[in-house]
Every structure is written in C-alpha cells, then in structure tokens.
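Case 157 in the screening queue. Each case pairs one protein sequence with one candidate compound; here the compound is methionine sulfoxide. For every case the pipeline is the same: read the inputs, emit a complex structure as tokens, and attach any notable structural observations.

Predict complex for case 157.
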Amino acid sequence: MEKAQLYQEVLNELSEFFSHYQNLSDIAIMTTISSVIHMKFPQLVFVGFYITREANAVKYLEVGPYQGKVLACAKIDIGNGVCGTSAQRKQTIVVEDVNRFETYIACDCASKSEIVVPVLHNDEVTSVLDIDSDVLGYFTEVDKEWLERIISSFLTN
Ligand code: SME
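Case 157 output:
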C-alpha cells in the first residue's frame, strides 16, 4: 500500500478515536498519535515526542510519550541533534542518512534515517514529533506533508 494511503488511514483512525473523547490532554493525544503511526509503518523503529521544558530560563527538550525498542535519551539541548535543530529552526527536518547529520544524537543504532516535525503554539515550539526508520532515506516530502497535517489536525491551535 502507498504511503499516502497509510497516512490517510492514520488520520482517519485518529479522528475517529478522538471523536469519542473531549478535552484530552496533550500527553494523551501524543501517546495515541505515536502508537497509531508506529503500528501502521513496520519500517519505523522509533516514534515519539520531545516536549519543551525550561529550567533557569533555559529551554530544552525532555522525552515525552514514545514507541520504540530502546530507551530514548531523556534530554536534548535546543540546537542539538535533529530534534533540537528542528525546535530551534521551527521547521521540519528530513535526514536521509543520520550519519551525515553533524550533531546527530544516536539512541538506537538501528536508526538510519529520521524526520522531526515541530509542534507550534503561538509561534512557540511546545514539542517535536521525532520518527526514526531503519531504512536509509525512508522519509520524503510525502511524510513531511502528512505528518505536518496530522500534527496541525490534533495538536496545534
Ligand atoms: N536522533 C535524535 C535523538 C532522539 S532519538 O532518535 C530517539 C536527535 O538527533 O535529535
């Protein structure tokens, strides 16, 4: 089945699921999104969120709900790794080969390519969606478009 079709199923399943609930917390929404995406694509080794936190007036990313086989690192500085770079630039980042991304942070050695999509509220990055694949060059514009659509449908206001 084509990727676009699978993403359409993800969007439909999430819409249907969330229609049964009112006022779900962001954590519940992030958990459900991670789970549905992870179940749909066997090529994904990690699907999860990092949430923006602040300590002593310095922002950083802290691990949030995720699906994967290894423990994800718990803290990432803004500007570091693919996640921190996406949070800093407020842009989706597609990495064809993680070994070629200068500040890449390795959590799972099975990971070969990665996409990170920022979640914005009032132009502030409140979290990022991080997805890793064990296939080199797995992510394309198709993933970027659909994931941004999923995020804007359920997590941004
Ligand atoms: N690779 C990420 C770190 C998080 S793990 O992939 C779960 C990065 O470079 O930001």
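Case 157 observations:
- The mean pLDDT is 96.
- Residues 110 and 134 are 5 Å apart (CA to CA).
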